[in-house]
Design goal:
Length: 76
């Protein structure tokens, strides 16, 4: 089942299937290592829900929910 990264809860893991959108935001997401096939784990959300912290390739990364909504994932 395909979801977007912003819909995952802390502790859930997923695999990136596609980054949608265009322009500099998409390029920045890809440059940070969020490409198809990458395994990620949601670490936590900020107290007000934005941004979120994820673990990617042994480092922690913070993303705005608007950016996370551009990343399609499948659970796994």
């Amino acid at each position: 089942m395909l979801k977007t990264l912003d819909s995952l809860l802390p502790g859930e893991t997923a695999v990136v299937t596609k980054v949608v959108g265009s322009g500099p935001v998409k390029r920045r997401i890809i440059d940070m290592g969020l490409v198809a096939g990458t395994s990620i784990k949601v670490q936590k959300y900020a107290p007000l829900g934005d941004p979120m912290e994820i673990k990617v390739k042994n480092f922690n990364l913070s993303l705005r929910k608007s950016e996370a909504a551009l990343i399609e994932v499948r659970e796994g």
